[in-house]
Design brief:
This protein is an alpha/beta fold. Strands 2-3-4-1-5 form a five-stranded parallel beta sheet, with helices on both faces. Helix 3 crosses helix 4 and helix 8 crosses helix 9.
Length: 237
Amino acid sequence: MSAKVPNTTRSLDPPFVGRRGEVKRLLQLHAHRKHGLILGPAGVGKSTLIRHVAGQVNLLMCPQTTRLSDICGAMEQQLGLEADGQHLVQRKNRLLRALAAADQTVVFDGVGWTTPKLSSFIEGVNQRVPVWIVTRSEHSWDIGHFWPLLTRFTRVELEPFRLADTSGLMGRLAETGDIPASALQAAHSWHRLSAGVPRVPGELLAGVATGGYDLHARFGLKLLDLDRRIQRLYCRD
């Protein structure tokens, strides 16, 4: 057992790899001004995909989607609006007008349970401009009051990485010097440990970057993964 559990829960900021089909579909949705529902489990790369697409087309990003006040704050900042002591209802109505005038696709990232108030606001937005919902689940018991409106949205589901994607990610990181080239020899093991979830290799590779692990040793990679899991337990809310 290691004497010290390093902070392997941080993740390298890897270059974008794979997801060509998903990128193409989102660009088509944007071109045809359609609503999109981007689905996938935690860590599969939904936000990374959106950030990549945002580099090619104009998107208004809303990463805070738990409370209406947080949404207003995030959107106001991007649109150059000041709160000016207005009440939340006033801010919401002004924001809806500003979004309609901006006429850009709005992305609500990390959407979970939606209250009636939050659901009503998102509905108000998608009556004016295209909306993309990024979420882990489309089930009514997970997404809340917005669920009946999902029939309006085109579904884009992210599958776990294939081995070629994991290998490509590691290859790019080796090229930039973020990980040692020797780590590429264990690509199959990295992929198996991650179960195709891109966030896991990012955390493991961050652990490699900190040093202290002999990946050529029989249990080096397993020890790294064990430390990562222990650290996540320590950091859990």
